[in-house]
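[Solved] Which block belongs to which protein?

Original post:
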Amino acid sequence: MCLFIIGACSHKIIPSSAKVNYLSSSDGTLTMNSIGVGKNKETAILDAEKNAFDVLFFRGLPNSEQKVALIDYNEIEIKNNNKPYFEKFYTEGRYKTFLMVSNPISEITKVDGVNKSITIEIKINVSALRKDLEQYNLIRKFGY
């Protein structure tokens, strides 16, 4: 009985299921469309931005220069073992230093009685993001 209560109370990180589509790339940047869901326009945009980064980190983006994930490890394990990095990255908005463009390209639409959805076009400086991940030892330097 104790194990059930402890397990039910523990906070779990749920892997994202983003809807992200590749548009173009040039000079170390990637441009994509990303769909986000939230209670209002602002939270839906934040969710779309987070989804785009999570896809680059843990899944890779087919048909792009970043076909493989930047962080080629278990997503849940990496997020649990590097909480300070990901909290600063997402919660404190550090990810925005790697954004070059983040523009809504659709109207906000209702998903259900509470949530709304929006599609954004987002451009990310993947070269700078890779260097940041290397600096914080989340990935090894390319070629080493």
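(Second protein starts here: sequence line, then its structure tokens.)
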Amino acid sequence: MQLSLRVALAAMLALVFARLLHLQHPLYAMIAAVIVTDLSTAETHKLGLRRIAGTVLGGALGALLSLLLPSGVWAIGAGIFGAMFLSHVLRLPEAARVSAYTCAIVLLEHGDGPWFYAFYRTAETLLGIVIAILVSYVPKLFRTGEHR
């Protein structure tokens, strides 16, 4: 129940702040908050850093590939493969799936501005992660048993 409350609070705050900032797709802030929130503050930080690394790598690769490859299923497949491969090369195996997912989203939905699209997806994700980390510091509401 503690995790459910913490995740719900992080998700709600991420949506509220994304809307206040007039971000294009508040959904990505909410998803990031849900994915990285954990009962442990340390684990939330760890998950948050992985998500940041994967999002930045995937967004940049997706924007770059969108300029080099024709849009379509093959470009998305190449992007997913490339993002996961680069994650392992950069010794970020925990970020591989997130980088692949982000790269595919940019390749699929970027419109005419892949760099802007990648930037805003990254900004929305970072907002969700920051909210999750801040919520992890609310120990009186959500006791975790970890020593602080």
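Accepted answer:
You had them paired correctly. Confirming on the second one: Residues 2-135 form one domain.
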